[in-house]
Amino acid sequence: MATDVAPYQNIGPLEKYRNEAWKCLRCGLCRMVNPERVKSWKWSSQCPAGSRFLFEAYYGSGKQEMVRALTAHPPELALSRRLQHIIYTCTLCGACQATCNYVKDLEPTNASVALREYAVREGWGPLPEHEPLIKSILNYDNPWLQPRAARSRWARKQGLPKVKDAAKDKVEVLYYPGCTASYDPFIQDVARDVVRLLGAAGVDFGILGKEEICCGSTILRVGDRERFEIVRKKNTESLNRTGAGTILTACAGCYSTLKREYGADLQAEVFHIVEYIERLLAEGRLAMQREVRRKVTYHDPCHLGRYCGLYDAPREILGRIPGVEFREMERIREWAWCCGAGGGVRTAFPEEVATWAARLRLEEAADSGADTLVTACPFCELNLGEAARGGASGIRVVDILALVAEAV
Amino acid sequence: MSAGQPAIATELFDYERKQRVVSETLRRIQDVVGPDYATADPEILSVYSRDFTITPQRRPNIVVLPGSTEEVQRIVRIAHEFSMPVYVLTSGFNHAGSFIPRRGGIMADLKRMNRILDIDEESMTATFEPYVPIAVLYEECNKRCAVRDIMLRPANPITYGSACMMSNVLSGGVAFMALKSGSHAENVVSMTWVTPQGEILVTGPPAVPNVGPVPVLGPGPDVGGMFLGAEGNFGICTRMTIRLFTENPWPREKIFLIHPVDEKEDRPEEVASLFYDITRDNYAQSLYKGSNRHSAQIAATSAEDVEAIIESLPTTIVYCVLAGLDAEELAIKKRHLDEQLDAHGRFVEMPEEAKTLFFETLGKTEEEVNRLLLKRCYTGPGRVGRWKGSFQWMAYVVKLEKIAQLEERYKAIVHRYWISPDYYGPSSATTTDTALQGPYQYGRTVMLEYDFYYDQGNPEEVKRAALVYEKLHRMMLESGAVNCKVVSRSLELQMPRLGTYYELCKKLKKVMDPQGIMSPDTMPLMDDYV
Amino acid sequence: MAAVVGPENVKDDPGFLSAYFLGQQGVSGLVVVLPAAVEEVQGVVRNCASDRIPLFTTYDTYLPDEAASASGVVIDFCRMNAIERIDAKNLCVHIQRGVTFEQLEEALRPQGLAALYPAAATTRSVLCHAVSRGINQAAARYPEVQVANMQVVLQDGSVHRTGSHANSEEMADWKEDGGPNISKWYLGADDVFGIVVCGSVWVYPRFEGRYFEAFGFEDRQAVVALAKDLARMELAAQCLAMNREAMAARFGVQREGLSAWTLLAGTEGFRELAAYHRKKIVEFAAGAGGRRMGPELADRIASGMSVPWYVRPKHSVGFYTLFGRIPRFEAILEAAARRNGLSAGADIGMTYLAYGLGRAVSCRYDLPEEGMPGSFVAELERELALAGAFFDRPRGALAEQVYGSAPAYAAQIKKIKAMMDPRGIFNPGRPFKGICDGD
Q1: What are the residues facing C362 on neighbouring strands?
Q2: CATH number given to C209-304
Q3: How far is residue B500's CA from residue B522's CA, in Å, rounded to a whole number?
């Protein structure tokens, strides 16, 4: 029965969400897993910022109320450090909107986005911690302050098949690794696995290498529409120039940004690797024959799940890997707990929110009986993996492609 | 300063001094809970200033998140010391503006007190803290067994699963299975209260050492009752033990839908007589009278859908829940229901095809509908609440035989001051409907409910809501009914009518809370109430 | 007093007074008044309040021993025995305090109605039993509070109408108050806050289907477990386990031929449903090893369970607990019995009645008529209470013990008492000494 207003869809001016604030029932659905789905007390919360700080303002309903107060005549509130904290500790995971839409047409996540963009316009955002990333994207086409030339170093690993240069050669499929998989040594194997799997399936693909430009998701999520537009235009031109009909990415953030924020300007069709692998498996172009003996559970990345509705493909894939014993956590799909990294939170509040949320997710994974937590987002993998390495959960965090590559 | 008058809360008070008092109070409270859990930041205060009821906005001066009974006690003592009002919040979902801090002061948000402390199969009780949502309590109880394959569950109220069980019990909420379980008040075993003077009081058998959660009243005078329906005027509840009930697994507990033979008939006296028949034989678990308008509220996905659904469904829909130890018992009860319907002559069971179609409009299978209504409790107010926003209702307890006369008066008011109850228009229109919740054991009484949906952002709708609400309250009270669940204006209008009882409540307020710091003005109990 | 109730209704003769006490002679210092109407009670209370004269009432057959040496006024409600209204449609009767079970039964039977039969009544008054939350035979199915509305005469002589009757007696008989549920404090209060004079009590249809079964067991554990389960499965409205001694005393049957324990289960409802419940009870009892009693005993039980059960004052100990704790308390009983040269199983009637869907159990130990030291009951109650037995209406020394162990609870009672009875006239010293300052 949900109206299914996805996060980041048709973000309007702040006043649009003011009217919605009047309609909020303060029912508390934005704080917890959908009551129809909740299974236990332990795993009943769903809002990382709200669960962390507990004041009403940090939940979806609270942020709608912020909007109402800011746009009242005269305003009841003004932007401030506290309001900044409230706005920017939100990972924009979309969970509040998913549960709210179960019974109402409100858009608390979108209200949070609108708040964020308003804060930027008024000079209260992005946070100082975000600026280096934004400048790095604008200057180096990646948020990691890394040189462009190093972007495709991951592809030069010994034993990896040579990859076509899509900047020079026409390819059917453009593989778009994204900045995290390109630069982060913990995540580069994701990109390598993509290459191996596409190669094994005989897909005609290439990469842009050092010509690849950041999708701009980071800038968008911290509310800086203006600077995001700069990156979007630039990247759209770059991607269109390749002439590829399909853009494939293994990053949930890049996927949701390219697919939903780039609009009709982007000529290619965008797929996430899990969709593509599912298709390859169905067509028999890939076969998973080697056993992978793991007890596995799957973490739904927000940008893949709630943002884009992709829940089944990764489960299909995991279900087909021989030897894998799949267990679901309690909070899955639309009701999945956010890893804590999104919305600029990992950068600005690494311990306070990002690692804190990740540890809870790892505990939930352990409770499911799994020894491996699988995800399909490098950013989730980064945040969860770091928390796993620093903690005592005993859970190993891997990208889904690692298991697929192991099974192929 | 006279008794019952908080020093801080009057407009005549010196602002600068007030700010100093707030700062000092905040500092003391932060010493108790830590700086992360208490604040006077306006951004935080703002969100605690209003809800969806017709109660006007008012901000607290401090918000605090206590984590234990002892912290609550220390905070109340500080409030006492500074004569600062204290209001309390759990989920915030309520129909009476209960947590709105009418006189400012301290808002105690009990979100950190969210544990389920014990679910005891032996005594069939559950003990929990304030911020335990209804659906969560249900899920945890349902993992425990009463006997054989019959599991435990709380008597879930007909409200959001995300609302908190404790506050629903304290404000007189109604269980869907009230026909069996009675009122919430009957099922409270024990409570722990921090009184306005900062003492801790445990009520019920657990007050006596070594007794444990024996689910009986006492010892001696039941002193716990006074806290129920008191809107926080006598303290803050930090722990509650309630009786649990049994649940037969699907399909041994099942909803049957009944409607008048003439599907468009809307005759409350006939419903009343049917309810009398069924309840007299004490075999149904729940009865609820809804309508096509109610169903359209839940099922419609657009305003255009609404008319179509209303047209396709009977005007009156009765939900009758039967449960059995096994299929045989369920069948016996079902046969009896069928016989009673035949004998009554004016009602029939909804045919299977129509029922399937009805459930399809809800987007669910029959089993899912059962699970939703019976087990998970109600998830939302449906479509109209979806686009309107505010959902205020009132509920009065009456004998079944009185319903018809009250419905006539209700319709007269609505036709005059709202819009026709038969009109269910596009999103700019307001709407209202009635339901029978309960009845209570053996049909001795029933809760007659009137729902109102309006958009708080539309001043005309708010005016209309406030006016009709007042007129209906007055009509019901003048008819002799009593409000059973605390809702906006109910206590203010009702209590002064209740003679000696009202005088006793006012006296009790002075005894329990001489400084008048606990939830002042949520009830008309204090000398300076205006 | 004579001006209020009429001179013929004021008694102070010691012989007359002694009848209000058990085992006391030569009582003086008290005056008994017998009002016939609420207004008369109001007058009596006003008079006593203005002169600070203690007022004594009882929810049991007799007044407490301590009152025998007091001076004051005793109110006897035997003349307030009007059944004011039977609301057959809404299953409620409106009665005065003096209405007895027998009287009510006679009035209800022609209308096909009945009130619940008490399982351990200390009074013949229907209202008193209900207000003191007396246990009923059908406690497995029906809630403990069977009174909906009350009229309570307060110290200033005003009448507090509780529940929905505060607004109207016509529209509903709803027990919850329209705000804070203060009226609950009158329940189990022995009139210490005000005198309950009238009330609305729930009544029930007399079902066509009403059956009783009895099964013999040698093993107490098995019979108690079965009683709990039958109550939880909602098969039995009346569900109790009685030992041989209790069975013999209650139903007047020979001990020989009885098993060590008997499970009694009663079903009621429309005929087919009650028959089904009966069938299942028989099945489960057989499965648990129970020996079904013959029809003669079953008939005797059926008629024995259609009347109120009264307890013998000072020879009965009753408390609540959880089923799993029964052995704990039986051990205490056995030890106490042995100390006095008795055997619990042979000499003491033991009854375990399933309560509240089998959530708890009402335990009753009925002691022999003779041969018990006067202190036996008090000592037994003390030990049981220390071990966690719950006495919901403790009196005398037990009350001091129970309330003394819950000081905050007792303090709250004192607060209410100070508010409701500032002159301390209502049943002074109850439920515990020191309830009033200066007590």
Answers
A1: C320, C353
A2: 3.30.70.3450
A3: 20
Q: Within an 8 Å CB–CB cutoff, is residue B455 touching chain A? A: yes
Q: Residue A320, class by beta-carbon neighbours within 10 Å (0-12 exposed, 13-18 middle, 19+ buried)?
A: middle
What is the pTM (predicted TM-score) of this model?
A: 0.95
Selection from C329, C373, A4, C320 nearest residue B123 by Cα = C320
Domains of chain A, first to last? 14-121 (1.10.1060), 133-281 (3.40.50.1860), 288-407 (3.40.50)
pLDDT at A117 over 80: yes
pLDDT tens-place string over residues C107-140 = 999 999 999 999 999 999 999 999 999 999 999 9
**Window B:284-303, CB contacts with A under 8 Å:** 298-299, 301
The distance of B128 to chain C (nearest Cα, Å) reads: 18
Number of B–C residue contacts, CB under 8 Å: 307
**What is the ipTM for the molecules in this complex?**
0.96
Burial A339-349 (b: 16+ CB within 10 A, else e): bbbbbbbbbbb
Q: Which of B290, B274, B429 is nearest to B342 (CA)?
A: B274
pLDDT at B384: 57
Query: Looking at the complex, does the CB of residue C140 fall below 8 Å from at least one CB of chain B?
Result: no
Q: What is the mean pLDDT of chain B?
A: 89
The number of residues making up chain A comes to: 408
Distance from CA of A225 to the nearest CA of B (A): 25
Q: Check if the beta carbon of residue B149 is closer than 8 Å to that of residue B82.
A: no
**Range of weakest confidence among A92-101, B16-25, B279-288, B358-367:** B358-367
Which residues, other chains included, contact C260 with Cβ-Cβ below 8 Å and sequence gap of 6+?
A: C216, C217, C218, C219, C220, C243, C244, C345
CATH class in words for C83-205? alpha beta
- Interface check for C204 against chain B (CB to CB < 8 A): the answer is yes
Of the residues B203, B220, B246, the one at which a domain ends: B246
Backbone angles phi, psi at A121, to 5 degrees: -60, -30
Contact call for B386 and A55, based on CB within 8 A: no
Q: Which of residues 269-298 of B touch C (CB under 8 A)?
A: 276, 280-283
In C113-192, the DSSP E strands lie at 113-114, 147-153, 159-161
B127 and B45, same domain (yes or no): no
Whether B279 and B362 map to the same domain: the answer is: yes
Closest to C52 measured CA to CA, from C431, C433, C430, C422: C422
Query: Is there a single domain that holds both residue B271 and residue B217?
Result: no
| CA A303 – CA A181 distance, rounded (Å) | 16
In this complex, which of A3, A27, A77 lies closest to B162 when CB atoms are compared?
A: A27
The span from the CA of B111 to the CA of A31, in Å, is: 11
Does B133 contact A77 at a Cβ distance shorter than 8 Å? no
Do residue B236 and residue B272 come from a single domain? no
CATH 3.30.70 fits C316-393, yes or no: yes
Q: Tell which CATH classification among 3.30.43.10, 1.10.10.10, 3.40.1080.10, 2.120.10.90 matches the domain C2-75.
A: 3.30.43.10
The residues pairing with A269 across neighbouring beta strands, listed in sequence order, are A246
**pLDDT confidence of residue B77:** 98
Identify the helix (H) or strand (E) that includes residue A52. helix A48-53
First to last CA, chain A: 40
Evaluate whether A5 touches A107 at the Cβ level (below 8 Å). Answer: yes
Q: Which two tokens stand for residue C92?
A: 């409620």
Nearest-angstrom CA–CA distance, C241 and B403: 44
SS3 content of chain A, % helix, strand, coil (to 5): 50, 10, 40
Counting Cα atoms < 13 Å in the Cβ hemisphere of C379 gives 13
Contact between B49 and B56 under an 8 Å Cβ cutoff? The reply is no
Q: Which residues of C touch B152 (CB under 8 A)?
A: none
Domain ranges, residue B39: 17-109
